[in-house]
Sequence to fold (668 residues):
Amino acid sequence: MSAEDQELLNTGSDEYSAKNISVLKGLEAVRKRPAMYIGDVGTRGLHHLINEVVDNSIDEALGGHCDNIIVILHKDGSCSIDDNGRGIPVDLHAEENRSALEVVMTVLHAGGKFDKQNYKVSGGLHGVGVSVVNALSESLQVEIKRDGKLYSQNYTFGDPVAPVQVVATLKKPETGTKIIFTPDKTIFRTTKFKYETVLARMRELAYLNKFVTIRVIDESENEDITLHFKGGLTEFVKYLDESREVLHKTVYIEGEKDDVPVEIAFQYNSDFSEAIFTYVNNINTHEGGTHLVGFKSGLTRTLNSYAAKNNLIKDQKITLTGDDFREGLTAVISVKVREPQFEGQTKTKLGNSEVKSAVETLVNEKLALFLEENPSVGKKIIEKCLRAAEAREAARRARDLSRRKNAMDSFDLPGKLADCSITDPDHCELFIVEGDSAGGSAKQGRNRRFQAILPLKGKILNVEKAKLTKVLENNEIRSLIAALGAGIGSDFNDTKLRYGKIILMTDADVDGSHIRTLLLTFLYRHMKSLFDGNRIYIAQPPLYRIKKGKEEHYAFDDAERDSILKRFKVSAAEVQTGHDAEELTEEESSSEHKIKGVTISRYKGLGEMNPEQLWQTTMNPETRTMLQVSIENAADTENLFTTLMGDNVEQRRAFIEKHAKYVKNLDV
Ligand code: 0RA
Fold:
């Protein structure tokens, strides 16, 4: 800090400088170990910066002080978040001897010093404070509207450039906070915000907080969407089931018990999978916890006693189990907890035991009431659950009959699996390959020590539309389950997994991407924790081989091809003419043409590559690039899969047209 700044701050005391040094140390710690505060320095951590600021605005909203938030991705790479909350206080902070605003922006966890009455989030990566965003920004500007004035302060790398200044007098009695920041390029692997990612989280927040309106703008893409859902969670489950056939009107439960506000919406659809999303203080609790347990037991108990009381189970032999009550169920549970305890591997499992009884009691009371008032809904739900119970019984009988043949019970590896020789899963990879011919190349090209190949024939079953019994009858799926060795569904056990990496290797064409989507759908529905463990990858075979004399290059997209050709002094325009001259049709499996002594081969299928080429370009860990599949947003992923794989064709087409880029990038 310069002497001038010191003067401006008008403190002059040694105490101040001492404090200031410790503050700098605090933010330095963030800059030194950013991952400790925001998880990672990739896309996820980058977007965490936006979420952190918005969480503060949402905190204001939860206290009833804010109902409007605007998030803008600016053309210059900065992001602004503008809210109409109370505005961060700007008065002198007695203890710190400088403005409260500066304290909030530069002291780790300073939010706590203000003793906010809200539901504070203490677990996971949330609630680390806006000072973390400041520390990781090359520049940040904050504007506060409060007490009839507009205040402003600028920072670089977390350091104030000058003290807070009054920049205007307000005409209207407005309040609010606006933060504009540019993430630090020396910290993040990428600093480009993705509209889809931001939008998905903002949509989720808008559903979870029905009194808030969130507008999300991307200035460079001309996107501008306003999110406001009067119906809250009711609209949220409708969104999740957008492409499914819903069986009845949505059940909505709201109440507070033992100081725990609870909000739940659920409905049944004609499909078979269970999709329950749980939130604590607006955070998605992937691993569930006490709120989920409370919901499940309340649901099972209430529906069972409703069915008994109304004589809805005619067949005395049938007893309904918890699983039967969750087939085709889509639900969102949102609770607010003052001091949440987060447990589990990813700290996304709620541990507070008082929440279980609060949720369970509310479900018992309010669901019973709802069913009494809506007997036709009650009847539909019980009918659906009875069908699930019948199917479960049938599946059990079938299993008993074919015990030894069943993929689940036998540990026989499928015949077409070419296994690797070492057995330590941490070092083993399974390539799931489309078709026998590509499978053949992969088997010859691989490193058989640690790479296993499982060729699958044609399109696997669309599990989105099939009962579990059907899924288990399908040969391709059985091979896959057996090869992975870790079971399926609720029996799935990570520790038995035979391979650490599961790599989907399909052709770079429409069929290939369809097969990949089918595989991802299966894995998502029945082995979801593979996604949490970041075990799923997508191989990236090249699209072109470019050869001149002895020199050979591979290109993974058109842009790369053109830049390689440029080095050979061939222009993109000439390549285009080359294409036209050959009249390349869609059906044609490959093409090769020569321009100025340069041979350009286009691969359409993996099978066209010889084993050595396949190894060199796609399988060799030293040289390959692969996409890692991760779930950025659970609710949006649910919606993505139901829309892509569901019945509603019109919806699917609209979705694909709108999200073509998103789907192609496989940001599921
Ligand atoms: C500290 C204290 C108060 C509000 C905030 C921080 C606050 C932070 C952010 C970040 C983005 N938007 C925000 N809005 C508010 C309490 C203010 C009071 O008591 O008046």
Notes: The chain has 21 helices and 27 strands. The CA atoms of residues 294 and 357 lie 6 Å apart.
